[in-house]
Amino acid sequence: MYHPLSIFVGLRYLRAKRSNHFISFISLVSMGGIMIGVMTLITVLSVMNGFETELRERILDMVAHATIEGYERRLPDWETLIGQVHEHPRVVGAAPYVEQETLIRGRATAGAQVRGIDPDLEPEVSEIGQLMHRDDLHALESGRWQVLLGGGLAARLGVREGDQVTIFAPEIRTTPAGVSPQVRRFTVAGIFEAGVHQYDTALAVVHYKDAQRLFRLGDDVSGIRLKFDDMMRARSIAMQIDEEIGGFHRVRDWTLQHANYFRAVSTEKTVMFIILSLIVAVAAFNIISTLVMVVTDKQADIAILKTMGMGPRRIMAIFMVQGSLIGIIGTFLGIVAGVLLALNVEQVVGLVEQILSIDFLSADVYYISDLPSELRAGDVARFGALALALSLLSTIYPAWRAARTQPVEALRHE
Fold first, then answer.
1. In the structure, what pLDDT confidence band is assigned to residue 20 with cuts at 50, 70 and 90?
2. C-alpha radius of gyration, the chain, whole number
3. d(Cα 164, Cα 211) in Å, to the nearest integer?
4. Cα end-to-end span (Å), the chain
5. In this model, does residue 314 exceed pLDDT 60?
6. Tens of pLDDT along 76-116?
7. Which long-range contacts link 357-366 to residues 24+ away (Cβ below 8 Å)?
8. Which of 105, 90, 288 is nearest to 188 (CA)?
9. What sign does the CA torsion over 260, 266, 272, 277 have?
């Protein structure tokens, strides 16, 4: 079908100076539309990839790659279990934890999640120590009753470093004077900013032995937090560990703990891809109107070519070559522009903010104040293939219409 003569004529039609400049303008508009559509797709999805990665990393700074939990939130003989999981080659860290939802009272009262940790082992499984204003993690010493609060939680309680808060255990004790809640006064040793609303506004961290005494767990803990050498393979590694340790335990990886959140992010990306693809579709379908006008303008040329023996398939190829080249050039320019913009989006946004004297993502409002971008080769290939496919499909009808041109009717008024 793509005979050299068809390619030659199609290329000549594309680059020739036409008397009808409007057709040339529409061709440029179609090419520019495809370029802008592909560029927008690459840039927006790269920024969404960047936000997803940034949020995932911030969440995993506070959440382990997997946890081993005991039934009824009690895990006895946890020290032996830590020794077992360390034998797995993919495990790089393990630490015990005690976790309980309760009330904390400062100048105000708020619900919070109290997490007891081992300050010596916790850095193996999380980055909480790096989120402190200072190195306050080792201020958590057993028996000193110290607590670390998320910045949002500290603001809700109306306290700061050095102040005291009261933590209520979710159970009561019986005394000769009647029943009373189990409470303990803690001193605020530090404040952290995780950059995740869930933890900054509702997490309090204490030493796990203090939490054991407060919640009356004896020597038991709530579970063990694990860190792997590859968080993207957490599901399979967690399943292997579950089979190896046996017993009455429940092993959950981070993808299960935050499944709804990451499913929502994935759905949002899919919907955004569909919406932005419509930009490329509109630009690609402009090729139809462009080629229809070219076919109408070239009726006499088509008739002459047919009388000289060129068949319908080769006539179709002429206009498919012309339309495909519009799509190829537009897609190529869009990929180049999109890749450059995605790789430099932070600098571009910074320049725009400087020129307009505005702040798009104020650090006082948003936890992520910059504009992260993660360019993925698979996305670029997918968007380019989509644009090329739509461009090629858009050439079929005009080319088919050109192939059906009757020489007698076309040359009657020449």
1. low
2. 33
3. 16
4. 29
5. yes
6. 888 888 888 888 888 888 999 998 888 999 899 898 999 99
7. none
8. 105
9. negative
